[in-house]
Amino acid sequence: MLNRTAAFFLVLCAVVSTRGQDVLVGRLSKDTPKTSGKNVESAWLDLRQIPAANSKPQSTPDWVESVSLVPGDKTPGLPEKTIFRIRVDHPSPDLQVLFFRLFFDDNAEQQPRLIAWNELGTIVVQSGQLGGGTGLSTSESLMVPMVGVSTIDLEVPGDGKTIRGAYMDWMANAEVLHPVSAEHRDLIPEPFSTMAPLHPAGQDSEKFGTVTASLADETIRIGASVSQGAAFQFGLESEPLMALLTFEVASPNIAAPPEVFLNGESIGTVAITLPELADPGYRGMTQSLIRGMSFQYTGWLRAQKLVPASNLKVGTNDLLIIGGAGTPISAIRATQIQLKYLWDKTDYQLQPDR
What we know:
Radius of gyration: 24 Å
Number of helices: 1
Strand content: 35-45%
Oligomer: single chain
Largest sheet: 7 strands, antiparallel
Distance between the termini: 87 Å
Order of helices and strands: HEEEEEEEEEEEEEEEEEEEEEEEE
Shape: globular
């Protein structure tokens, strides 16, 4: 068995392609000196099943003990499952929560879930199905309580080839101040990004002369043509001073953001808030390295578009969002619009005509 397994390497910590085969822990290059609670490194695990000929070993922090691919329980009448098993050690007693971000292809019939076990084989915590079945390459983030946990399983229906990678980082406690009058936000500082997830607007609200209205809460797939766009209608009783369209977009081509049409006229592409370039969510696309590489972000990004007041009209307005040029398919969610009106405390300057 050793001779057979020796032909397989951990492809940037990738899992071997033979089911039930343990990845050789010795292939993981351990960093020295030993980690401590004061300076604990994050871990990136490449879980793509790549042939040994194309594999390269990677360094991981020593709190990642092993990664293996094990066969799931075969139940008659149920689809076969694949399990990625990650054994971890606690680098410090003070660190009790693990940030876990999974990168995968979000297929409706192959949605993964996370299960955390203790040494006795008892489930400590488990997630529901991750993803929304969008059919796009995406990522999901979880906070995993690690008290007593020694093993994390990623369970996915099928051969496991929809799983691409995992990023792990230990979380430390810190006091967070927030304004008591503001809407509650689940603000968890994620690595590489400072933008909090966008929550659906829910009911229409008004504050300081600004009306916030939800156009759609659900996830809507979009393409790069008008026929594949997401169409919305909203009514105005009076023309605002300006408007701001906001939503989240999944798997966009970052060089070609979605385009917005209002009342049949293009008002341009949206601006998207990008995380640091070190984020593993960036996925390169190229036909030739000589010609360069374009990038898709495999996750959700905040998108905004300032809507000129001159393009709005009293009555019904038609809004259309399509994917950027060269984007085969994408998705948007939590779509909302803000309308700014003249308020009795509006700060403005009246400049004389020249």
